[in-house]
Input
Amino acid sequence: MGVEMPWFPEFVSAVELARRETRQAGLDDPVAAYFHALSRGDVHALETVWPGEVVVYDPRAGEVRGHRQLRRFVRHNQSWLAERHARIETVAATVVDGRAVVEVLAHLAGDGPTVAWPVAVVAESPDERSVLFRTYCSQWPVDGQRHLRPPILGTGDVHPGDVVGRYQAALDQGNAEAIVETFAPDGYLREPVGQHDTHRGISELRSFFTSCFNSGGGIGLRQCAMTDDGVRCALEYNCVRWGSHDLPPQAGIGVYERAPDGLLAAVRIYDDVEAPFERS
Output
């Protein structure tokens, strides 16, 4: 004699509704789903939202491709973050045409003082079933070393305009005065290594860029991809030159935030590029 389960159709409907809600939440905010997986050690939501291919480009783990590697990567990161009592603070998000760039500060509490680690994650879906995550940061706040980061993307047809374009031209030329003129009076630049390396105001910015260019020449970036919502412009790039020194191409991203007057309120850099000379 069979056992009737009149609630079973409702149970199936509830599961399907939960799955749809999880999927929609992940599609609406893919980077939040990614950080949730890293902090909880649970890839279920990622696999529900993107049952196809999931690819992660991570500075520490390299390329992670497919669900099996993803589970291993997420478990390792959850353990690593838990050991450091990590707390994630969102700084800004830039979302345009299916690409999301989210900037966070990961507050890590180890044996010493708490470290604020700037990290940027780009999420991009090539189709409805798949997603790519590209993470950019310096590893200096974590282990005190610079790590060469090979390119993730090739050079693209990217031509930022307005103040962002002027900044890029001055950076390439090594023109400290021209680059300072792109900032609002209280604008700032934050280096990849953290909050303590923030340069705010015209005097500090002039001093910083003068030290960057003191060997002659500027910093050469090959732009790969741009995400611009009108307030913030995120440029993924490969750094190939610093002054007169050619560098092995190294991946990074810069976020340029505009002030109401059209100048730069903030520039936040995420890479592990090291100057090939002693900065004064």
